[in-house]
Amino acid sequence: MFRILVLPALFLVLINPQIFAQKGAKNLEKSKLQNDSTRAELFSYKAPPPIIKPARDLLMLSFNYNNWVQKPDSVKTKPFGYSFNGFLCYDFPIKNSNFSFATGVGVNVSVVYLNQLQIDLKDTVSGAVAKFFPDTSHFTRYKFVSTYLSAPFEIRYFANNQNRNKGFKAALGLQVGTLLGAHTKGVTSASGTLVKEKVDTKRFISPWNFAATARIGYGNFSLFCSYNLTNVFKENEGPVITPASIGFCLTGL
Prior knowledge:
Elements: H1 2-43, E1 59-70, E2 82-93, E3 99-113, E4 117-120, E5 131-134, E6 141-158, E7 168-190, E8 193-200, E9 208-218, E10 221-228, E11 242-252
Antiparallel strand pairs: 1-2, 1-11, 2-3, 3-6, 4-5, 6-7, 7-8, 7-9, 9-10, 10-11
């Protein structure tokens, strides 16, 4: 009986150190793996994310239908007028918001076709004014062209302020321009020969141009419109005429 009790007890005493040794070895190996993993995390090099320079809509090009929306009843125009705006802008983000302020410099060219009318811009008499009179030369085309060096000022909103080539965008602004030149140009035919009559003068033309502008669109394309706050002619030197335009604007960079 004594042998039956002592032999199993002695067997357990002999086998327990092996069990404890195996468990200790496993725990030591596990601890070593954890330490090695921690060291790898501490000393591993992670490359920083690539720096992406966000688009700022530095370039603005707009092609528009243009006409005189406010004018005397006697002044008739054809529905073929157009204008072009080209600007290089610099954009100033407003903190971390989706808004920014932008300004720049460029040109604004406006073309309006008259309907069976001419403009007298050559009168040198003191106190003279710009006058419209019937087309006695029977021009097939007669247009008035003005060119301004302009600076746009805009408050912009971008739904995607990291990539403005994608996402909704809108802007409200003001264009301020100084007159570079203006001319009238008529085209007619005499004995089968094409004849062009051009009068290039700044007289009577407003030296400054102020226009309220708005844009709304998606990505690189937007709808553009503008309404002049100044008249075509200087005050008291021609009829009160106000231009407006609407068209498409291409932006990028």
